[in-house]
Amino acid sequence: MDQETLMTIAGYGKFFIILFIFVLFYSYAYSIYKRDKTGERDFEKYSNLVLDDSLDSAPLEKRETK
């Protein structure tokens, strides 16, 4: 193969990798948005963790014991 063909293949490869990462990121962002709107999980309490980070603070979620 000549250099031009290899560069063309590399260009297509980079395009599809970027496209895959774009789809992956937006599907993750949509899932967070959907879970926040349905009330399945409250992400606002996780953002408050930065402000209230001590050993004496209450846990964010209860753990299930088996």
pLDDT under 50 segments (min length 5)?
Answer: none
Taken as a percent bin, the fraction of beta residues is: under 5%
Overall shape: elongated
Topology as H/E string? HH
Helical percent range? Answer: 55-70%
- On the 0 to 100 scale, the average pLDDT is 88
Largest sheet: none
User: Whole-number radius of gyration?
Assistant: 22 Å
Secondary-structure content class:
mainly alpha
Give the count of helical stretches: 2
End-to-end Cα distance: 60 Å
Protein traits:
elongated, mainly alpha, 66 residues
Write up this protein.
- This protein has 66 residues and is an all-alpha fold.
- It has a domain at 3-35.
- The protein is built from 2 helices and no strands.
- It starts with a helix and ends in a 19-residue tail after the last helix.
Which helices and strands, and how do they pair?
Blueprint: H1 3-38, H2 44-47
The gist of it:
The chain has 66 residues and is mainly alpha-helical. It is 61% helix and 0% strand.
